[in-house]
Write a structure and sequence with these properties.
Two copies of one chain form a homodimer. With about 290 residues, chain A is mainly beta. Chain A contains five helices and 16 strands. The first copy, chain A, folds into two domains: about 110 residues, Porin; about 140 residues, Porin (Beta Barrel). In chain A, strand 7 and strand 8 form a beta hairpin. Chain A starts with 13 loop residues before the first helix and ends with a strand.
Protein backbone atom coordinates (compact mmCIF):
# COMPACT_ATOMS: atom_id res chain seq x y z
CA UNK A 1 0.00 0.00 0.00
CA UNK A 2 1.49 3.30 -1.12
CA UNK A 3 0.31 5.15 1.95
CA UNK A 4 2.87 5.15 4.80
CA UNK A 5 5.81 5.47 2.43
CA UNK A 6 6.51 9.03 3.57
CA UNK A 7 7.11 9.98 7.16
CA UNK A 8 6.07 13.53 7.93
CA UNK A 9 4.62 13.95 11.41
CA UNK A 10 2.01 16.15 13.00
CA UNK A 11 3.84 19.39 13.66
CA UNK A 12 6.51 18.80 11.00
CA UNK A 13 4.79 18.50 7.64
CA UNK A 14 3.68 20.43 4.57
CA UNK A 15 0.30 21.09 6.15
CA UNK A 16 1.83 22.39 9.38
CA UNK A 17 4.34 24.63 7.61
CA UNK A 18 1.75 25.99 5.18
CA UNK A 19 -0.82 26.73 7.88
CA UNK A 20 1.68 28.33 10.28
CA UNK A 21 0.62 31.61 11.86
CA UNK A 22 2.91 34.06 13.64
CA UNK A 23 1.59 36.20 16.50
CA UNK A 24 2.19 39.86 15.71
CA UNK A 25 4.18 41.50 18.50
CA UNK A 26 2.22 44.08 20.45
CA UNK A 27 -1.11 43.19 18.83
CA UNK A 28 -2.78 40.45 20.88
CA UNK A 29 -4.97 38.16 18.81
CA UNK A 30 -3.44 39.22 15.49
CA UNK A 31 -1.50 36.68 13.42
CA UNK A 32 0.44 36.84 10.19
CA UNK A 33 0.32 34.00 7.71
CA UNK A 34 1.58 33.28 4.21
CA UNK A 35 -1.00 31.48 2.10
CA UNK A 36 0.78 28.81 0.10
CA UNK A 37 0.32 28.39 -3.64
CA UNK A 38 0.56 24.66 -2.96
CA UNK A 39 -3.07 24.34 -1.89
CA UNK A 40 -4.77 25.96 -4.86
CA UNK A 41 -7.38 24.71 -7.31
CA UNK A 42 -6.56 26.43 -10.59
CA UNK A 43 -5.83 29.84 -9.05
CA UNK A 44 -8.16 29.73 -6.05
CA UNK A 45 -6.83 28.94 -2.61
CA UNK A 46 -8.74 25.91 -1.31
CA UNK A 47 -11.38 26.71 1.27
CA UNK A 48 -10.48 23.76 3.47
CA UNK A 49 -6.83 24.84 3.60
CA UNK A 50 -7.96 28.35 4.56
CA UNK A 51 -9.99 26.79 7.39
CA UNK A 52 -6.79 25.11 8.56
CA UNK A 53 -4.92 28.43 8.63
CA UNK A 54 -7.64 30.35 10.44
CA UNK A 55 -8.30 27.35 12.68
CA UNK A 56 -4.69 27.39 13.79
CA UNK A 57 -4.89 31.09 14.63
CA UNK A 58 -7.99 30.44 16.75
CA UNK A 59 -6.23 27.52 18.41
CA UNK A 60 -3.52 29.91 19.54
CA UNK A 61 -5.95 32.65 20.56
CA UNK A 62 -8.46 30.57 22.52
CA UNK A 63 -7.94 28.74 25.82
CA UNK A 64 -9.10 25.39 24.38
CA UNK A 65 -7.06 23.44 21.81
CA UNK A 66 -9.53 21.71 19.49
CA UNK A 67 -12.11 23.02 17.04
CA UNK A 68 -15.54 21.57 17.92
CA UNK A 69 -17.64 23.59 15.48
CA UNK A 70 -16.33 26.03 12.89
CA UNK A 71 -18.39 28.13 10.49
CA UNK A 72 -16.79 30.06 7.64
CA UNK A 73 -18.29 32.61 5.32
CA UNK A 74 -16.19 33.06 2.18
CA UNK A 75 -16.39 36.71 1.20
CA UNK A 76 -13.79 37.29 -1.51
CA UNK A 77 -11.30 34.99 -3.26
CA UNK A 78 -8.07 34.48 -1.32
CA UNK A 79 -4.76 34.64 -3.20
CA UNK A 80 -1.48 32.95 -2.39
CA UNK A 81 0.68 35.34 -0.39
CA UNK A 82 0.65 37.27 2.87
CA UNK A 83 -2.48 37.37 5.01
CA UNK A 84 -3.44 38.82 8.36
CA UNK A 85 -5.79 37.05 10.75
CA UNK A 86 -7.53 39.04 13.45
CA UNK A 87 -9.13 36.98 16.19
CA UNK A 88 -11.54 37.83 18.98
CA UNK A 89 -12.24 35.74 22.06
CA UNK A 90 -16.01 36.02 22.30
CA UNK A 91 -16.46 33.88 25.40
CA UNK A 92 -14.13 31.68 27.42
CA UNK A 93 -16.09 29.02 29.29
CA UNK A 94 -15.01 26.00 31.27
CA UNK A 95 -15.80 23.37 28.64
CA UNK A 96 -15.97 25.48 25.52
CA UNK A 97 -14.65 28.79 24.31
CA UNK A 98 -16.09 30.79 21.45
CA UNK A 99 -14.01 32.78 19.02
CA UNK A 100 -14.26 34.76 15.86
CA UNK A 101 -11.61 35.40 13.24
CA UNK A 102 -11.28 37.23 9.97
CA UNK A 103 -8.63 36.74 7.33
CA UNK A 104 -7.53 39.80 5.42
CA UNK A 105 -5.28 40.38 2.42
CA UNK A 106 -4.07 43.58 0.82
CA UNK A 107 -5.39 44.19 -2.69
CA UNK A 108 -3.58 45.77 -5.65
CA UNK A 109 -4.60 49.24 -4.47
CA UNK A 110 -3.13 48.62 -1.03
CA UNK A 111 -6.50 48.26 0.69
CA UNK A 112 -7.11 45.58 3.29
CA UNK A 113 -9.84 43.23 2.01
CA UNK A 114 -11.64 40.68 4.18
CA UNK A 115 -11.42 37.24 2.55
CA UNK A 116 -13.34 35.14 5.04
CA UNK A 117 -14.90 35.34 8.47
CA UNK A 118 -15.16 32.49 10.91
CA UNK A 119 -17.06 31.79 14.10
CA UNK A 120 -16.03 28.78 16.14
CA UNK A 121 -16.34 26.96 19.42
CA UNK A 122 -13.23 25.21 20.70
CA UNK A 123 -12.95 22.56 23.40
CA UNK A 124 -10.69 19.70 24.44
CA UNK A 125 -11.43 16.47 22.58
CA UNK A 126 -9.23 14.49 24.96
CA UNK A 127 -11.32 15.62 27.93
CA UNK A 128 -14.54 14.13 26.56
CA UNK A 129 -15.92 10.83 27.85
CA UNK A 130 -15.48 7.83 25.57
CA UNK A 131 -19.16 7.01 25.25
CA UNK A 132 -20.45 6.64 21.69
CA UNK A 133 -24.01 5.82 20.64
CA UNK A 134 -24.21 5.99 16.92
CA UNK A 135 -26.43 4.73 14.15
CA UNK A 136 -24.18 6.30 11.54
CA UNK A 137 -22.64 3.71 9.24
CA UNK A 138 -19.28 3.81 7.54
CA UNK A 139 -19.85 4.84 3.92
CA UNK A 140 -19.41 2.09 1.30
CA UNK A 141 -15.95 2.94 -0.06
CA UNK A 142 -13.87 0.20 -1.69
CA UNK A 143 -10.42 -0.57 -0.27
CA UNK A 144 -7.75 2.08 -0.79
CA UNK A 145 -5.98 -0.03 -3.42
CA UNK A 146 -9.13 -0.19 -5.55
CA UNK A 147 -9.72 3.57 -5.59
CA UNK A 148 -8.43 6.03 -8.21
CA UNK A 149 -5.55 8.37 -7.47
CA UNK A 150 -4.20 11.20 -9.55
CA UNK A 151 -1.58 8.77 -10.80
CA UNK A 152 -4.19 6.30 -12.01
CA UNK A 153 -5.26 5.47 -15.56
CA UNK A 154 -4.42 8.27 -18.03
CA UNK A 155 -7.91 9.62 -18.69
CA UNK A 156 -9.24 9.50 -15.16
CA UNK A 157 -6.00 10.43 -13.48
CA UNK A 158 -5.35 13.35 -15.75
CA UNK A 159 -8.78 14.83 -15.26
CA UNK A 160 -8.64 14.40 -11.50
CA UNK A 161 -5.25 16.07 -11.28
CA UNK A 162 -6.19 18.82 -13.71
CA UNK A 163 -4.23 21.97 -13.03
CA UNK A 164 -4.77 21.90 -9.29
CA UNK A 165 -1.69 22.20 -7.14
CA UNK A 166 -3.50 20.83 -4.09
CA UNK A 167 -3.48 17.35 -5.64
CA UNK A 168 0.27 17.18 -4.98
CA UNK A 169 -0.35 17.77 -1.26
CA UNK A 170 -3.06 15.14 -0.89
CA UNK A 171 -3.16 11.38 -1.04
CA UNK A 172 -6.63 11.28 -2.55
CA UNK A 173 -8.13 8.06 -3.88
CA UNK A 174 -11.62 8.39 -5.31
CA UNK A 175 -14.22 5.66 -5.14
CA UNK A 176 -14.59 4.54 -8.79
CA UNK A 177 -18.37 4.81 -8.38
CA UNK A 178 -18.02 8.57 -7.89
CA UNK A 179 -15.16 9.18 -10.34
CA UNK A 180 -17.07 8.69 -13.59
CA UNK A 181 -17.17 12.44 -14.24
CA UNK A 182 -13.40 12.30 -14.86
CA UNK A 183 -14.08 10.27 -18.01
CA UNK A 184 -17.26 12.08 -19.00
CA UNK A 185 -19.67 9.69 -17.28
CA UNK A 186 -20.92 11.23 -14.03
CA UNK A 187 -23.33 9.06 -12.06
CA UNK A 188 -25.85 11.87 -11.68
CA UNK A 189 -26.32 11.05 -8.01
CA UNK A 190 -24.39 13.91 -6.43
CA UNK A 191 -21.96 11.73 -4.48
CA UNK A 192 -18.21 12.01 -3.97
CA UNK A 193 -16.34 9.51 -1.87
CA UNK A 194 -12.78 8.46 -1.29
CA UNK A 195 -9.76 7.95 0.90
CA UNK A 196 -7.93 11.07 1.94
CA UNK A 197 -4.46 11.18 3.40
CA UNK A 198 -1.79 13.83 3.24
CA UNK A 199 0.84 13.21 0.55
CA UNK A 200 3.79 13.49 2.90
CA UNK A 201 2.35 10.84 5.19
CA UNK A 202 1.41 13.14 8.05
CA UNK A 203 -1.47 11.68 10.01
CA UNK A 204 -4.60 13.72 10.51
CA UNK A 205 -5.39 15.81 13.56
CA UNK A 206 -8.36 18.05 14.35
CA UNK A 207 -6.84 20.94 12.38
CA UNK A 208 -6.30 18.91 9.22
CA UNK A 209 -9.84 17.54 9.55
CA UNK A 210 -10.92 21.09 8.75
CA UNK A 211 -9.15 20.62 5.41
CA UNK A 212 -10.67 17.23 4.65
CA UNK A 213 -14.28 18.33 4.44
CA UNK A 214 -13.56 20.60 1.48
CA UNK A 215 -10.76 18.78 -0.32
CA UNK A 216 -12.58 16.34 -2.62
CA UNK A 217 -13.84 17.36 -6.06
CA UNK A 218 -17.26 19.00 -5.82
CA UNK A 219 -20.30 16.71 -5.80
CA UNK A 220 -21.58 18.90 -8.63
CA UNK A 221 -19.13 17.09 -10.93
CA UNK A 222 -20.99 13.86 -10.16
CA UNK A 223 -24.20 15.67 -11.10
CA UNK A 224 -22.69 16.54 -14.47
CA UNK A 225 -22.23 20.21 -13.62
CA UNK A 226 -18.90 21.51 -14.80
CA UNK A 227 -18.92 25.13 -13.65
CA UNK A 228 -17.40 26.70 -10.59
CA UNK A 229 -19.12 25.86 -7.29
CA UNK A 230 -18.02 28.54 -4.82
CA UNK A 231 -18.76 27.97 -1.15
CA UNK A 232 -20.97 30.55 0.50
CA UNK A 233 -20.85 29.08 3.98
CA UNK A 234 -19.33 25.95 5.45
CA UNK A 235 -19.81 24.54 8.94
CA UNK A 236 -17.80 21.62 10.24
CA UNK A 237 -18.15 19.72 13.51
CA UNK A 238 -15.11 17.86 14.78
CA UNK A 239 -16.43 14.98 16.86
CA UNK A 240 -13.36 12.93 17.71
CA UNK A 241 -9.57 13.00 17.39
CA UNK A 242 -8.77 10.89 14.31
CA UNK A 243 -6.72 7.71 14.62
CA UNK A 244 -3.57 7.42 12.46
CA UNK A 245 -3.99 6.48 8.82
CA UNK A 246 -5.97 7.78 5.87
CA UNK A 247 -9.55 8.90 6.34
CA UNK A 248 -12.64 8.00 4.41
CA UNK A 249 -14.66 10.99 3.26
CA UNK A 250 -18.16 10.79 1.80
CA UNK A 251 -19.93 13.86 0.47
CA UNK A 252 -23.49 14.01 -0.80
CA UNK A 253 -25.70 16.61 -2.41
CA UNK A 254 -29.39 15.91 -2.19
CA UNK A 255 -30.95 19.22 -3.16
CA UNK A 256 -29.85 21.45 -6.04
CA UNK A 257 -32.46 24.19 -6.22
CA UNK A 258 -32.50 27.76 -7.40
CA UNK A 259 -28.82 27.62 -8.25
CA UNK A 260 -27.73 26.62 -4.76
CA UNK A 261 -26.81 23.24 -3.36
CA UNK A 262 -25.71 21.76 -0.06
CA UNK A 263 -22.71 19.47 0.31
CA UNK A 264 -22.86 17.19 3.35
CA UNK A 265 -19.60 15.55 4.29
CA UNK A 266 -18.85 12.83 6.78
CA UNK A 267 -15.32 11.82 7.67
CA UNK A 268 -14.41 8.44 9.19
CA UNK A 269 -11.09 7.36 10.64
CA UNK A 270 -9.23 4.05 10.43
CA UNK A 271 -10.96 2.83 13.59
CA UNK A 272 -14.39 3.36 12.00
CA UNK A 273 -15.25 6.39 14.09
CA UNK A 274 -17.18 9.34 12.70
CA UNK A 275 -14.63 12.09 13.31
CA UNK A 276 -16.17 15.02 11.43
CA UNK A 277 -19.42 16.14 9.87
CA UNK A 278 -19.84 19.18 7.69
CA UNK A 279 -22.37 20.93 5.53
CA UNK A 280 -21.77 23.74 3.11
CA UNK A 281 -24.06 25.91 1.03
CA UNK A 282 -22.58 26.52 -2.40
CA UNK A 283 -23.62 28.24 -5.59
CA UNK A 284 -23.70 26.33 -8.84
CA UNK A 285 -22.40 28.73 -11.46
CA UNK A 286 -23.29 26.86 -14.61
CA UNK A 287 -20.68 27.10 -17.33
CA UNK B 1 -58.84 19.68 10.09
CA UNK B 2 -58.12 21.94 13.03
CA UNK B 3 -55.47 23.90 11.19
CA UNK B 4 -56.88 26.92 9.30
CA UNK B 5 -59.35 27.73 12.06
CA UNK B 6 -57.46 30.88 13.05
CA UNK B 7 -56.61 33.62 10.63
CA UNK B 8 -53.46 35.50 11.56
CA UNK B 9 -51.42 36.62 8.56
CA UNK B 10 -47.76 37.12 7.83
CA UNK B 11 -47.01 40.55 9.26
CA UNK B 12 -49.93 40.50 11.73
CA UNK B 13 -49.46 37.56 14.07
CA UNK B 14 -48.02 36.47 17.39
CA UNK B 15 -44.73 35.56 15.73
CA UNK B 16 -44.46 38.92 13.98
CA UNK B 17 -45.31 40.93 17.09
CA UNK B 18 -42.98 38.90 19.31
CA UNK B 19 -40.04 39.12 16.90
CA UNK B 20 -40.47 42.83 16.18
CA UNK B 21 -37.33 44.95 16.29
CA UNK B 22 -37.19 48.73 16.48
CA UNK B 23 -34.30 50.65 14.91
CA UNK B 24 -32.62 52.79 17.53
CA UNK B 25 -32.58 56.44 16.40
CA UNK B 26 -29.12 57.77 15.67
CA UNK B 27 -27.46 54.34 15.94
CA UNK B 28 -27.48 52.69 12.51
CA UNK B 29 -27.65 48.89 12.65
CA UNK B 30 -28.80 48.83 16.28
CA UNK B 31 -32.25 47.47 17.13
CA UNK B 32 -34.26 47.13 20.30
CA UNK B 33 -36.43 44.09 20.93
CA UNK B 34 -38.52 42.69 23.76
CA UNK B 35 -38.09 38.95 24.12
CA UNK B 36 -41.48 37.44 24.79
CA UNK B 37 -42.13 34.99 27.64
CA UNK B 38 -44.50 33.26 25.23
CA UNK B 39 -41.72 31.35 23.47
CA UNK B 40 -40.02 29.77 26.45
CA UNK B 41 -39.29 26.16 27.37
CA UNK B 42 -39.50 26.05 31.16
CA UNK B 43 -37.62 29.33 31.73
CA UNK B 44 -35.34 29.32 28.69
CA UNK B 45 -36.17 31.42 25.66
CA UNK B 46 -36.36 29.07 22.66
CA UNK B 47 -33.32 29.21 20.38
CA UNK B 48 -35.42 29.11 17.22
CA UNK B 49 -37.49 32.08 18.36
CA UNK B 50 -34.27 33.97 19.10
CA UNK B 51 -33.14 33.21 15.55
CA UNK B 52 -36.38 34.79 14.35
CA UNK B 53 -35.72 37.97 16.33
CA UNK B 54 -32.12 38.35 15.24
CA UNK B 55 -33.04 37.26 11.71
CA UNK B 56 -35.53 40.09 11.52
CA UNK B 57 -32.92 42.61 12.63
CA UNK B 58 -30.56 41.37 9.91
CA UNK B 59 -33.38 41.54 7.39
CA UNK B 60 -33.73 45.23 8.17
CA UNK B 61 -29.99 45.88 8.23
CA UNK B 62 -28.99 44.07 5.04
CA UNK B 63 -29.87 44.95 1.44
CA UNK B 64 -31.35 41.50 0.73
CA UNK B 65 -34.63 40.30 2.31
CA UNK B 66 -34.28 36.56 2.91
CA UNK B 67 -31.98 34.50 5.11
CA UNK B 68 -30.11 31.95 2.97
CA UNK B 69 -27.73 30.62 5.63
CA UNK B 70 -27.72 31.59 9.30
CA UNK B 71 -25.32 30.36 11.97
CA UNK B 72 -25.91 31.08 15.64
CA UNK B 73 -23.63 30.50 18.60
CA UNK B 74 -25.55 30.48 21.87
CA UNK B 75 -23.33 32.05 24.50
CA UNK B 76 -25.48 32.65 27.59
CA UNK B 77 -29.14 31.94 28.38
CA UNK B 78 -31.53 34.62 27.13
CA UNK B 79 -34.30 35.82 29.44
CA UNK B 80 -37.70 37.26 28.54
CA UNK B 81 -37.45 41.04 28.48
CA UNK B 82 -35.59 43.82 26.72
CA UNK B 83 -32.74 43.01 24.35
CA UNK B 84 -30.45 44.97 22.08
CA UNK B 85 -29.29 43.66 18.71
CA UNK B 86 -26.20 45.13 17.11
CA UNK B 87 -25.73 44.30 13.45
CA UNK B 88 -22.84 44.70 11.07
CA UNK B 89 -23.00 44.58 7.30
CA UNK B 90 -19.92 42.54 6.49
CA UNK B 91 -20.30 42.53 2.72
CA UNK B 92 -23.03 43.68 0.35
CA UNK B 93 -22.83 41.82 -2.93
CA UNK B 94 -25.14 41.68 -5.91
CA UNK B 95 -26.71 38.28 -5.19
CA UNK B 96 -25.86 37.86 -1.53
CA UNK B 97 -25.05 40.06 1.42
CA UNK B 98 -23.27 38.92 4.54
CA UNK B 99 -24.09 40.17 7.99
CA UNK B 100 -23.28 39.61 11.61
CA UNK B 101 -25.41 40.33 14.66
CA UNK B 102 -25.17 39.98 18.40
CA UNK B 103 -28.00 39.98 20.87
CA UNK B 104 -27.33 41.55 24.26
CA UNK B 105 -29.25 41.77 27.51
CA UNK B 106 -28.49 43.63 30.71
CA UNK B 107 -27.80 41.42 33.70
CA UNK B 108 -28.77 42.00 37.34
CA UNK B 109 -25.62 44.05 37.89
CA UNK B 110 -26.43 46.31 34.97
CA UNK B 111 -23.76 44.87 32.69
CA UNK B 112 -24.46 44.20 29.03
CA UNK B 113 -24.10 40.45 28.39
CA UNK B 114 -23.89 38.89 24.92
CA UNK B 115 -26.50 36.15 24.61
CA UNK B 116 -25.86 34.95 21.08
CA UNK B 117 -23.89 35.82 17.99
CA UNK B 118 -24.98 35.19 14.45
CA UNK B 119 -23.35 35.20 11.02
CA UNK B 120 -25.61 35.07 8.01
CA UNK B 121 -25.86 35.44 4.27
CA UNK B 122 -29.05 36.96 2.92
CA UNK B 123 -30.38 36.91 -0.63
CA UNK B 124 -33.67 37.13 -2.50
CA UNK B 125 -35.49 33.80 -2.72
CA UNK B 126 -37.91 35.17 -5.28
CA UNK B 127 -35.05 36.07 -7.62
CA UNK B 128 -33.80 32.48 -7.85
CA UNK B 129 -34.55 30.30 -10.86
CA UNK B 130 -37.20 27.61 -10.38
CA UNK B 131 -34.97 24.67 -11.23
CA UNK B 132 -34.93 21.87 -8.69
CA UNK B 133 -32.95 18.63 -8.91
CA UNK B 134 -33.42 16.73 -5.74
CA UNK B 135 -33.04 13.19 -4.49
CA UNK B 136 -34.28 14.22 -1.05
CA UNK B 137 -37.52 12.44 -0.13
CA UNK B 138 -40.35 13.74 2.02
CA UNK B 139 -39.99 12.17 5.47
CA UNK B 140 -42.54 9.48 6.37
CA UNK B 141 -44.90 11.45 8.61
CA UNK B 142 -48.52 10.28 9.01
CA UNK B 143 -51.34 12.67 8.11
CA UNK B 144 -51.81 15.66 10.41
CA UNK B 145 -54.98 14.16 11.92
CA UNK B 146 -53.09 11.03 13.00
CA UNK B 147 -50.32 12.91 14.82
CA UNK B 148 -50.29 13.88 18.50
CA UNK B 149 -50.87 17.43 19.62
CA UNK B 150 -50.52 18.94 23.06
CA UNK B 151 -54.29 18.47 23.40
CA UNK B 152 -54.07 14.75 22.68
CA UNK B 153 -54.48 11.81 25.04
CA UNK B 154 -53.85 12.75 28.69
CA UNK B 155 -50.49 11.04 29.25
CA UNK B 156 -48.85 11.91 25.96
CA UNK B 157 -50.40 15.32 25.63
CA UNK B 158 -49.52 16.36 29.13
CA UNK B 159 -45.91 15.36 28.76
CA UNK B 160 -45.57 17.09 25.43
CA UNK B 161 -47.07 20.30 26.75
CA UNK B 162 -45.12 20.14 29.99
CA UNK B 163 -44.49 23.58 31.41
CA UNK B 164 -43.41 25.10 28.14
CA UNK B 165 -45.15 28.28 27.09
CA UNK B 166 -44.04 27.88 23.47
CA UNK B 167 -46.50 25.02 23.02
CA UNK B 168 -49.31 27.58 23.11
CA UNK B 169 -47.77 29.41 20.17
CA UNK B 170 -47.27 26.35 18.01
CA UNK B 171 -49.57 23.96 16.22
CA UNK B 172 -47.29 20.98 16.76
CA UNK B 173 -48.40 17.46 15.95
CA UNK B 174 -45.84 14.76 16.62
CA UNK B 175 -45.54 11.59 14.60
CA UNK B 176 -46.66 8.86 17.03
CA UNK B 177 -43.55 6.87 16.08
CA UNK B 178 -41.38 9.58 17.64
CA UNK B 179 -43.66 10.49 20.56
CA UNK B 180 -43.13 7.37 22.68
CA UNK B 181 -40.88 9.25 25.11
CA UNK B 182 -43.93 11.17 26.29
CA UNK B 183 -45.29 7.95 27.77
CA UNK B 184 -41.94 6.58 28.90
CA UNK B 185 -41.27 4.51 25.77
CA UNK B 186 -38.73 6.28 23.57
CA UNK B 187 -37.87 4.47 20.34
CA UNK B 188 -34.14 4.78 20.96
CA UNK B 189 -33.57 5.85 17.34
CA UNK B 190 -32.94 9.56 17.85
CA UNK B 191 -35.75 10.75 15.59
CA UNK B 192 -38.32 13.51 16.04
CA UNK B 193 -40.90 14.23 13.36
CA UNK B 194 -44.12 16.11 13.06
CA UNK B 195 -46.30 18.78 11.55
CA UNK B 196 -45.55 22.32 12.60
CA UNK B 197 -47.83 25.27 12.13
CA UNK B 198 -48.24 28.43 14.12
CA UNK B 199 -51.15 28.34 16.58
CA UNK B 200 -52.74 31.53 15.33
CA UNK B 201 -52.88 30.21 11.77
CA UNK B 202 -50.15 32.44 10.34
CA UNK B 203 -48.49 30.77 7.40
CA UNK B 204 -44.75 30.29 7.39
CA UNK B 205 -42.26 32.59 5.72
CA UNK B 206 -38.45 32.48 5.61
CA UNK B 207 -38.19 34.18 9.03
CA UNK B 208 -40.49 31.70 10.76
CA UNK B 209 -38.58 28.86 9.09
CA UNK B 210 -35.71 29.90 11.36
CA UNK B 211 -38.00 29.02 14.27
CA UNK B 212 -39.11 25.68 12.89
CA UNK B 213 -35.72 23.98 12.91
CA UNK B 214 -35.44 24.29 16.69
CA UNK B 215 -39.06 24.03 17.84
CA UNK B 216 -39.63 20.29 18.17
CA UNK B 217 -38.73 18.38 21.35
CA UNK B 218 -35.06 17.35 21.30
CA UNK B 219 -34.18 14.10 19.54
CA UNK B 220 -32.39 13.19 22.78
CA UNK B 221 -35.83 12.47 24.27
CA UNK B 222 -36.28 9.76 21.62
CA UNK B 223 -32.89 8.37 22.70
CA UNK B 224 -34.18 8.14 26.27
CA UNK B 225 -32.07 11.06 27.49
CA UNK B 226 -34.02 13.31 29.80
CA UNK B 227 -31.53 16.04 30.65
CA UNK B 228 -31.10 19.47 29.16
CA UNK B 229 -29.68 19.57 25.63
CA UNK B 230 -28.36 23.11 25.12
CA UNK B 231 -27.44 24.14 21.61
CA UNK B 232 -23.82 25.16 21.09
CA UNK B 233 -24.15 26.12 17.43
CA UNK B 234 -26.96 25.92 14.92
CA UNK B 235 -26.78 26.53 11.18
CA UNK B 236 -29.86 26.69 9.00
CA UNK B 237 -30.13 27.00 5.24
CA UNK B 238 -33.36 28.41 3.81
CA UNK B 239 -33.74 26.91 0.35
CA UNK B 240 -37.17 28.01 -0.78
CA UNK B 241 -40.08 30.25 0.26
CA UNK B 242 -42.60 27.94 1.95
CA UNK B 243 -46.06 27.46 0.49
CA UNK B 244 -49.05 28.14 2.78
CA UNK B 245 -50.03 25.47 5.29
CA UNK B 246 -48.30 23.55 8.03
CA UNK B 247 -44.80 22.24 7.49
CA UNK B 248 -43.40 18.80 8.06
CA UNK B 249 -40.23 18.76 10.14
CA UNK B 250 -37.98 15.72 10.58
CA UNK B 251 -35.00 15.79 12.89
CA UNK B 252 -32.45 13.02 13.32
CA UNK B 253 -29.48 12.40 15.56
CA UNK B 254 -27.06 9.78 14.31
CA UNK B 255 -24.02 10.31 16.49
CA UNK B 256 -24.02 10.89 20.24
CA UNK B 257 -20.39 10.82 21.28
CA UNK B 258 -18.36 12.33 24.05
CA UNK B 259 -21.41 14.10 25.43
CA UNK B 260 -22.17 15.95 22.19
CA UNK B 261 -24.70 15.20 19.49
CA UNK B 262 -25.80 16.66 16.19
CA UNK B 263 -29.44 17.35 15.31
CA UNK B 264 -30.14 17.41 11.58
CA UNK B 265 -33.45 18.94 10.60
CA UNK B 266 -35.22 19.03 7.28
CA UNK B 267 -38.35 21.06 6.71
CA UNK B 268 -40.84 20.37 3.91
CA UNK B 269 -43.75 22.53 2.79
CA UNK B 270 -47.25 21.58 1.67
CA UNK B 271 -46.08 21.37 -1.94
CA UNK B 272 -43.45 18.76 -1.01
CA UNK B 273 -40.53 21.09 -1.41
CA UNK B 274 -37.50 20.96 0.88
CA UNK B 275 -37.60 24.51 2.25
CA UNK B 276 -34.99 24.36 5.00
CA UNK B 277 -32.11 22.22 6.24
CA UNK B 278 -30.33 22.68 9.52
CA UNK B 279 -27.76 21.07 11.73
CA UNK B 280 -26.93 21.91 15.29
CA UNK B 281 -24.26 20.74 17.68
CA UNK B 282 -25.68 20.28 21.17
CA UNK B 283 -24.45 19.06 24.51
CA UNK B 284 -26.21 16.23 26.26
CA UNK B 285 -26.21 17.14 29.95
CA UNK B 286 -27.33 13.88 31.47
CA UNK B 287 -29.66 14.26 34.38
Amino acid sequence: MAYAAAQATIGDSEFDRDTAVVPRPGEPGVYDADLSAGWTIIQAVNGGYLLGVIGRALQQALPHPDPFTVTAHYLTASQPGPATIRTETVRAGRTLSTGQASLFQTDAEGREVERMRVMAAYGDLDALPDDVRTTAAVPPIPPYEECFGADAAPAGGGAIAGSTAIIQRLDLRLDPATAGWAVGAPSGKGDMRGWLGLADGRDHDPLSLLLTVDALPPTAFDLGIKGWVPTVELTVHIRCRPAPGPLRVAITTRNLAGGFLEEDAQVWDSEDRLVAQSRQLARALLS
